[in-house]
Amino acid sequence: MSTIEVLDQGYVRLVNHMGSDLTVVNAARVSYAKQSLELNERDVRLIKFLAREGHTSPFRHAIVQFEVYAPLMVARQWWKYVVGSAHYEGTGDSLEAWNESSRRYITEDPAFYIPKAGEWRLQPENSKQGSGGEVNWELGVKHTQELMGYVELGISKYEAALADGICAEQARLFLPAYGMYVRWYWTASVQSVAHFLSQRLEHDAQKEIQEYAKAVLELIKPLFPVSLGELLGNEE
Q1: Nearest Cα residue to 68 out of 181, 214, 165, 179
Q2: Among this protein's residues, is 104 annotated catalytic?
Q3: In CA terms, which of 155, 170, 188, 204 is 20 to 30 Å from 225?
């Protein structure tokens, strides 16, 4: 399985990867001109030591590439991990890369994430961010219908602007932004992916990005089971 569907129209697809747990081991042992040909218990102990002691550079020699299709509100939260990667203590991950579709150039039919009636959440009681429990059904129906109407209006004005000859990079101003789906490639080291997962799998992370993080975890875990388990503290 290389693709996992998320939300109503989104997905995470594993495009490519380089390396394995053995890559991490051999990157660490090159300092002593040693190499393992097959992962063994001694190698597993080394990975545990590296993760526990914060010797993270060997984990940056194993690379994963994903294609993601998600609402803009998810994409922008995700993007913070790319921007902050080089500033994250111990990361310095210069191999991180992000390439995203742009409505400056494409005019394919826009898609939007619209929560179902039972998916709307209340404001949290004791926090300025995040969300609380689900709203009642009637209120959910109301806001699903209102959002659908808002999206339809934005699309109609976007299409009208294009029909009038307005350039795509300006016509897109009519599209409701945060729920609009965007597509991107994300290439990152195992360490960087683990850092993203450690934050976005937490119970207080926004539910929508949690769902994407779960998909990333399901796709990457079989590739780097020991390294990922140790970097995440075996809490996944």
Answers
A1: 181
A2: no
A3: 204
